[in-house]
Amino acid sequence: MMHANRSRLARVNPAVKLTAHLAVMLFLMMIADPITSALLWLLSIIVGVMFGGWTMRYIRKRIVPYLGFFLLVFWMLAAFGKGEHVLGQFAWFRITEEGIYHGLTIAFRMLGFVTYGLLFTSTTDTTQLVMSLIHQYRLSPKWGYGLLAGLRFVPLFQSELAQMKAAHKIRGFHAQGKLKSFARYTLPLFTQGIRKAERVAIAMEARGFDGSRNRTYYHTPVTSKSDYVYAGTLFLAVAVITAVSAFSGWLHWAWNE
Amino acid sequence: MSWKMREVVLTVVLSIACGVLYLGWSTLWLPISALIGPVGAEVMFGVWVVASPLIAYIVRKPGAALIAELAAAAVEVFTGSHFGLSSLLIGFFQGLGAELAFFLFGYKKYSLPVLMLSGVLAAVGSMIYSLLANGFGYYTPGVLAATFALRIVSGAILGGVLGKLIAESLAKTGILQQYEMMRQRRQQRGEGYDSVSRM
Amino acid sequence: MIPYLGCNNLSVRFYDAPSFTLQHLSLSIQRGEKVLLLGPSGCGKSTLLSVLSGIIPAAIEAEVKGEVTRPESVGIMFQDPDAQFCMLTVGDEIAFSLENRRIPRDEMNGRIEKAMAQAGLSVPKDTPIETLSGGMKQRLALACLLALEADVLFFDEPTAQLDPQGRQDVFTLLKSVSDTGMTMVFIEHVLDGLIDWMDRVILFDAQGRIIGEGAPKDVLTRYEKEMEAAGIWRPRLFPHTLEEACAPSHPLQIGWREKLKQSETRARSKGAVEPDIYTIRDLTIGYGKTNILEHVSFSLRQGEWTAIIGENGAGKSTLLKALAGLEKGKHGEVYFQERPIRKWPAKKLYEQVGFVFQNPELQFVTDRVYDEVAFGGRVRQWDEHVLTDKTNRLLQEFTLNAHRDHHPFMLSQGQKRRLSVATMLLFDQKVLLLDEPTFGQDAATAAQLLARLEERKKQGTAIVMVTHDMDLVDRYADRVIWIADGTIQFNGAPYDLFSSGASLPGLMRPLHYEWERRMRHDACQPLPFGSR
């Protein structure tokens, strides 16, 4: 489950935060050069350190492992991407200048996605997010509470999966091939899941839950000025970086090819 | 057609179960991609979209496919995964595609071809996302076409066909009696309490 | 007169069943009454409870004929502690009840605290539910029901998934709730600690008809034969109390003396000393900084029945898994037949060692009961005649022949358990490891399974079982290993453990040992009840 840390960012309304971060990610999808992408990614690190309560150690632990992913994405585009200025070629790998350019762009973009994502998940509490969706995004309580009820099953499924793998090993099932045994796992997992899901639904209704908005709430997240100040500042920073990049001739939009 | 609570919780729980299984699947993705590029990994694509045809097939309500994809993606958000937010976006595009297949038939047909179409359109939706977000437009036309083709086939088979297979084997255990899928079947056969008058 | 709670000429039929589950049932319950519904598995008690509480037809669909009366608000506690909640923390969960009742926000905290106090939950409001034990979860469930301020509370086997200590805690708690005059309706299988404060017991037969009702004492004595035939667990002590039973020549003492004698004889008999089949040396298992088991050493002999006991979380399951080669230790070694277990190839190991999981469904891999039993042989490409012969014999042995073509998931819980044991005996394994095999079963099913296991033991199979049932341990086990805090507290005969004068924290001695202790100390006082 997500838990909020103690930071300025944790106090921002979850729905507003979610929208703001998704908006930045969508904007990132429109940028087609490595430098602007990299700068926008660095912005997320700065926000994390200044408002998200991130320490250097935290960044090392959580972001650095994704550098491997960064390299993979870069490599895929560098070696398989289209381009004319070939730098090297062996087997079916073909490294081009354009490939490197695009590879870096997408790699930084992916890194940006991961970091803005982490910025969100490290400063938001699961229950508060669902409540915020119910109040700010008018999500029906039926789905909001239903979602929370279902989320409780994640650790259960993980432990059952581990047990099934053990059980199959004992029965010698893995001798039949990984794909078949994978398909075998789904049946008990899903059956158990469905049974428990029904019990949960019955229990919720038995306690007077009707899924309607005709209820009172223990948690009522609200939006305040500071939420919009955060969103606004974030967008402003993005705009400034983009302008600087345009001015320095680095900027490329995705639709200018 | 209002959703019953058990249908809501079933949708969430099955999507979550798929989400947990995905975690196991995705560890294979990384080394395969490095070796043969994006094309090779595409064969596995269908598994990522199996939740939507599966749940739509059982529950048979408008919106089921889209919600299933979003719920499976939501698992990643709520469990604090780094890929959470981008999963949401992916889930949205895939879900829209999957949903479209059922919409085109007025939410009345749930046969195997429709399920396969759902997988195909989910692949299309995901392809659109890949073009916009993952820079798939930067691959050579050959790579692009191969990726697209494989993704569509994988979506149809590992998404649509597998979804139906799972639903049918669940039905065999008798656990889906109260859901729309089995009710429609009983109505077709003219049996069951649905056709008996209640006092 | 219209009853406070009840039904008149009630008949219920489910959509996919050809016949009625309940037929022309009438009963009425007064306000403030505590009623226990008793009957064999599958007789329809749960269906009746669902109708009385309104779950049928509101949340579960079925054809309902007849009249049902109930007061305005009801609360239901279910047996699966995890499938009753929808929130992540204790406070939020109780608040959910209040939110549904549209209680104003500023009243909520006060009511939550009151409910928590009544249910004996002294944890912070933001405690995550997943960190609570089974017993605590049921306390939380009760708190949620109390917050509903219902007129009637229904309980559908609320302690079925708890260990004996948790069960007693919940019963004590519910007794205190009953003192407030609440109307309560129960379905339960384990009666000690519950039946003595019931006002009325209603006994059903296998077809869902009422064969008797009245005060608990009367029903138990008058229908003793029927209850035994139906496989209903009978209370160990009720309607007597331990105090009465300590009086000289009380009839219960005959049975107790016999049990003690048998247990002692088994403990003292040496018999032929069999070779060790397992040797565990200085085994430590853990992850990161925490250790589940530390420096555990012991040996198990061939053909021995060993019980592993201890509180939940003590490490029993981990130890059992280590014996199956499923857990790797940080250091130390598990030797199976004198070879380190990790050196055994999986295929060979599992021809010698069978493992029966607590949840039988997790190990099924086929669509037919017959195929399930035959699976191991098919994978090893046995000769078809040999395989058919063996499979049929196993199906007969475990009375599964009638279901040979059914899907494993369609069997009852008891049948599934028998099937999972049967699959593990195809190779006439030398060792059978079982994780709580009698958990949540009625007396008849459990006895059947234990009888099969005892037969196997006589043929030389070593049985190692994790269990909470101390009576089972006393009656069947040759050796008991008690684990607490990750180490072995006792390794020896059950008689020696239970009759020792030492206090056994977290363990509940079988009743006959409690009596013996009282006799020795010459002070007969009412006690909390024995095992189960």
UniProtKB/TrEMBL annotation, chain A:
This is Putative HMP/thiamine permease protein YkoC. The gene is ykoC. One of its GO terms (cellular component) is plasma membrane. It comes from Aneurinibacillus danicus. The keyword Transcription regulation does not apply. Its main location: membrane. It is a multi-pass membrane protein. The chain crosses the membrane at residues 12-32, 38-56, 63-80, 100-121, 228-251. Signal peptide: none annotated. It is found in: Membrane.
Automatic annotation (TrEMBL), chain B:
InterPro entries: ABC_thiamin-permease_prd (IPR017195). The chain crosses the membrane at residues 7-25, 31-51, 63-83, 89-107, 114-132, 138-162. Keywords: Membrane, Transmembrane, Transmembrane helix. The keyword Iron does not apply. The keyword Disulfide bond does not apply. This is Putative HMP/thiamine permease protein YkoE. It comes from Aneurinibacillus danicus. The lineage of its organism: Bacteria, Bacillati, Bacillota, Bacilli, Bacillales.
